[in-house]
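A student in our group prepared the protein record below, which I am reviewing. Thanks in advance; the entry in question is below.
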Amino acid sequence: MRWAYFIVLQFIFVLVIAGLVYKHKNNAVIIKTPPTELAQWYKPENKRQVWLHNMFKLRREMQAVQFYAETKDQEHLSKWALALNEHYLKIGEMIPKWNKKLDASTLSNLQTTVDNQDYTGVLAVVKTLQKNCDSCHSDYQAITALTYRTPDFSTIEIEPLVSFNSHMQALGKQVNQIKIASEDGMSELAISSLTDLKQGMQKLGQGCTDCHKKDQKPYPSEAMKKTLLSLENSLKTGTLKEQGMELGTLAVQACARCHGTHRLAFGTKVLLSKEPNLSELLKH
């Protein structure tokens, strides 16, 4: 009887936990994070994006195998199937713990169907192999890209003792100060804030070139400079509506476009890389 009570209590305990999890399902998201060993195959730990290029090779090789199976070109099919075999197995060589995720039997079937010139069989095997790839991509592709392909702005200094984050906050305040001073008729303060904004944008542009070495469009761009000049003129002689329109245009050109690429991705990266503590877990 004691064992029966124990089993019933365990069952009730599991139900309670399941109920709590279901009740709070909207407060938490389950995300599978890739092994930390993956970092060694991405920049900056590696000189090249080794993992990324292996994935590109696999995608190209699977397409080639499918194409040559459809056209029944045995010579080229054999060539690409061998390359696919090599780079598929390389996943396990680079990340040993992912060996168990590889579909070795399907890969073996691929080589058999290629050798037997079973083109219909090759297409079926490629389809199965694609499902194996897709299952991992569903779990890890987005989080891996966010982790290893999003720039880390937290380590950047615009100038000594001035972090990237501090500089960006200052730029935001200058934009708002222009708007506040403009609405309240303080033209001198608005113009001096614009001067500070110009200088801050120039400093930011110098930092951008660290990554955008080959970019032919400097920051601030010619379009931004033109808007800055128009904004300055409107702050001196224009109407409140004109000032607001020029400032809005500048905000889109100089802030929103870059934020749409970098700020969202970096913010998500920081959020996902944060180690949850016990209090946070209990809160959720």
About this structure: The longest helix spans residues 240-273. The CA atoms of residues 209 and 215 lie 8 Å apart. The mean pLDDT is 87.
